[in-house]
């Protein structure tokens, strides 16, 4: 069985029911107009405020793109790049690629021209499909496209189409909506995802159809989606996190809403108007919602939220204080946290479980159909409360880093994926993250785990976000520095932070306080390499000046 079977089943059983809704808040023209009425309005940009598609249309559109690919002589196993913002076309295109027996290669929409070219070349992409937001960036690498990419398709209105791309919208209309005569097995290659690139250039992560199916089974088991549920998808679909959480909707034949915006008002309004029951948030978005509620910028009385049953978070460590604040405002919500990485086909290899709210702070236990171990430097399993490297094993583990056997061998050992995350297991078997292996600060021979300090500092009511990094020090080797982003409208001094941190053990207290923005990537992870590059250079200059 492969995941395209679920799509065909839904089209057959629930064909006339809505599968996907796209909401574009930026396209609203008249604030007095209801969202239902706005769905009938075509705006100048050709991107209506609200669009929707049924399961039958979804499947037919996937078949059309698959048949377009096959009509060009594109063979099984061809890599097809997707460079689109979240939109109603995204998932039918993805499934069309799979139905053609090809390999889907989603690309980060924040990539520069150089990064796009690098990833296309690394993954051996022969077909590229993109949206209007990327025309300028692709124009800069047109010589590469002309030489290395056989077909380039443009998704959007004809007047915006560049001359180096063919019109997707027109071409698929001439293709059959019948399923193509291609069958895939669980062992066939299915997708290449790229690592977040927080340690340099991204790696290409190759998965087979078994991994995608594993993500479906795990997600639906964890969150129990039924056909009555409505899932709000906000994160980018190019990333495994958003898509693999949506796989629960795919399995259950339930509706999902793609929201192109992340303000607290847009999120709450969409939940209210679209009768959303499940929302997956990143930490910054949850913080923004709470800050907006507590500052009076939004009032929950203006929204119908009773049907919202589950809020879950993943992609990065979740401060205990954040969830306690959340439960104060949404006491009826179930809460879950999900741990995963692109190498493990996204979230779910470890999860907390809604029944374990008393263990908030842990990432949980091994997910459905997964195994976990925490090992020391020799690969031996650690004792309770002993910090080691988290390893995971299951059908969702990647096949390899594409064209990079050395990097593959470093993280795949006897079927176990070495995550690079340092963690420990408590007496109840729950796993707690302490930090990325590469982010551990060694100060005077003592290991300091920045996540533990960050979690503590999130309890300060004035702090919106915080990142702790190691800075070079002549005497101690490294010291802990806290980059702190203060909430809007508040003031805070270094003395206040130092006084607050006196509740930490002395060796864990940050030795340097910096007030600045905390940069996060689209999946919510703190961009610590950027902070190190910015502040380590300053520290070295400071050290040399003293000499």
Task: Give me some keywords for this one.
nine-stranded mixed sheet; Rossmann fold; five-stranded parallel sheet; disordered C terminus; GMP Synthetase, Chain A, domain 3; 27 strands; alpha/beta; 547 residues; Luciferase, domain 3
How would you describe this structure to a colleague?
With 547 residues, the protein is α/β, with parallel strands linked by helices. It has three domains: 3-261, ANL, N-terminal domain (Rossmann fold), CATH 3.40.50; 310-436, Luciferase, domain 3, CATH 2.30.38; 443-546, GMP Synthetase, Chain A, domain 3 (2-Layer Sandwich). It is built from 17 helices and 27 strands. The chain has a nine-stranded mixed sheet, sandwiched between helices. A five-stranded parallel sheet has the order 4-3-5-6-7, sandwiched between helices. Strands 17, 18, 20, 21 and 22 form a five-stranded antiparallel sheet that branches. The longest helix is centred in the C-terminal third of the chain and has 19 residues, at 528-546. The termini are far apart. The relative contact order is 0.09. The model is unreliable at 29-47 and 543-547 (pLDDT under 50).
